[in-house]
Amino acid sequence: MLIDSQYLIFTTIILLCSIIVLKLKILDFKGTISSIFMGNLIYLVTGIGGFILVIEFFIIGYICTRFRFKQKRRKGIAQEKGGIRSWENVVANGFAFSLFGTIYFLTNNELFLVGFITSIAIATGDTLATEIGLLSSKKPRLITNLKEVETGRSGGITILGSLASIFGIIIIILSSSINGFSFNMNILYVTIIGAFFGILIDSIIGATIQAQYFCNKCDKFTELSTHHEQQNELRKGYSLIDNNIVNLLSTLSGSILSILFIIII
Description:
Elements: H1 5-23, H2 29-66, H3 69-75, H4 87-107, H5 110-133, E1 141-142, E2 156-157, H6 159-178, H7 185-208, E3 212-215, E4 220-222, E5 226-227, E6 230-231, E7 233-236, H8 243-264
Antiparallel strand pairs: 1-2, 3-4, 3-7, 5-6
Helix pairs in contact: 1-2, 2-4, 2-5, 2-6, 4-5, 4-8, 5-6, 5-7, 5-8, 6-7, 7-8
């Protein structure tokens, strides 16, 4: 896929969109720069169809993050920094997109295209599970033992969030077909299953080895190592495994599972 007039038009559009992203405070400056590079890579290795899928994830994530944001903030469970995402968020979610998309480009093996689509479906479903699940009227339950935990606790799941995640997965899988990635129905089903497993893996890692701190001022658990300008106490998990690492591991794991399921079937 050589650089041509179409690519130059695309680059111009993505730069203009980046200005809007900064103005709307969707991403910070480093996050915006990271998204420009990642968007260009996705376009070059998967074409406009793959890029559209990533944009869909981006838009859905933004809408869900801002949905009833004031309500989430009052409860102390809103995305930090007013919902503005950083370069770490971009890389954590986009690493699997870029990896599987690039391998597909280099090998022309459709298994890696499945991995690419699955990774976007996982990221979308996980974002919906989190942001919509936070609004559930019922307390979440820890995925490892089904005991009730406070809203926003890592590894906590809700029926509302789980349904939202399935909805997000299906949107991306159906969109992939509309955008020119044609698979038979069996592969589509396997992709949906792999994506859902990826979200389950996200919750399991969150409940077991993700760093969970306790804020004495809020008197509750948090994923943040510092809160209210003070260091929080690490109560569970490992400090190196934060939410971004969990997202990266879950998108990779679920995508690999989809590929393995197809090979086995």
